[in-house]
Amino acid sequence: METSQLAILIVDDEAPARERLRDLLGDIVAEQPNRVIGMVGNGLEALRLLETTPVDLVLVDIRMPAMDGIEFAQHANLLKPPPPIIFVTAYDEHAVQAFELNAIDYLLKPVRADRLAGALQKARHATPVARESLDTIAEPRRHLTCSERGKIHLIPIGDVLYLKAELKYVTARTAAREYLLEESLVQLEQEFAERFVRIHRNCLASRAAVVGFERSVGEDGGEGYWSVRLNGLDELLPISRRQWANVRAVLGD
Predict the structure, then answer these.
(1) Residues in domain Response regulatory (predicted)?
(2) What CATH number does the domain containing 229 carry?
(3) pTM
(4) Where are the beta strands (DSSP E) in the chain?
(5) Angle at the Cα of 169 (from 164 to 170), degrees rounded to 5?
(6) pLDDT of residue 18
(7) What is the domain extent for residue 126?
(8) For a surface tag, which of 52, 63, 121, 182 has the fewest beta carbons within 10 Å of its beta carbon?
(9) What is the DSSP string of 178-202?
């Protein structure tokens, strides 16, 4: 039975590393039929390519500028279907143990042809890496992801003014617009604890965007409450009485 040809995307910020992988794939093409459909320098470029070009496998480096390999894989999980991914890494022993504990396939640099052939064979029957496994070994992301009509919008986390839970979605608000995220507010709070502060049970505000507080009067003329003003946003965000003490402690009076 003839082995099918794998369409492969190579993602690495170093051109010599991309070319070496391409050459190795050429060396094993008789054993593991494949074709390289693209070579890009970071995760952002890879996601853009994957929106229009289906692939059977992605070989991605871990350490890259703009978006590293782990964050790329987190976002690529939203694609339908998400592609199988093999990480190429020069990580130390402890990091490799993390890959193995989470059943994440990897190749150690310098990559050997026989090891690459074995990885391709395994990839033919692999399922995409579970998002939970990626989250276990990932650093805080530099982007959030919103999927709209088959297109992935990448939202720089530094642009987000607040995150608000609404029904089963979380709204991420930037100065320009709102995005709907299929994520948990609790998980976002844990991941970005240094960047956001909880001001209400359903809302996290960017610490860097806070420009001041204002006292607001209740709608019925009753007890007032504090609100926070964020840079670039006209609306005031109410702070719950339960969170007020913590907000003051985190952000100052």
Answers:
(1) 7-124
(2) 2.40.50.1020
(3) 0.82
(4) 6-11, 34-40, 57-61, 85-89, 106-108, 143-148, 151-156, 162-166, 169-173, 178-181, 196-200, 203-206, 210-216, 225-230, 236-238
(5) 25
(6) 96
(7) 6-137
(8) 52
(9) EEEE-S-HHHHHHHTTTTEEEEETT
Residue for token digits 């970071």? 42
> How far is Cα 197 from Cα 163, in angstroms, rounded to an integer?
10
The DSSP result for 27-70, as a single string, is HTTTTS-EEEEEEESSHHHHHHHHTT---SEEEEESS-SSS-HH
Q: Would you call the peptide bond into 16 cis, given omega within 30 degrees of 0 as the criterion?
A: no
- As a whole number of Å, the CA-based R_g of the chain is 22
- Tens of pLDDT, residue by residue over 149-207, are 777 889 999 999 999 998 889 999 999 999 999 889 999 999 999 999 999 999 999 99
- On whether residue 107 sits in a domain, the answer given is yes
Locate tokens 């992988």: which residue? Answer: 21
Asked, for residue 18, whether it belongs to a domain, the answer is: yes
Among left, alpha and beta (phi > 0; psi -120 to 50; other), residue 212 is left
The Cα 217–Cα 223 span in angstroms is: 7
Q: How does the average pLDDT of the chain come out, rounded?
A: 89
Quick check: is 233 in a domain? yes
pLDDT-above-90 percentage for the chain = 55
> What pLDDT, in 10s, does the model give residues 8-18?
999 999 999 99
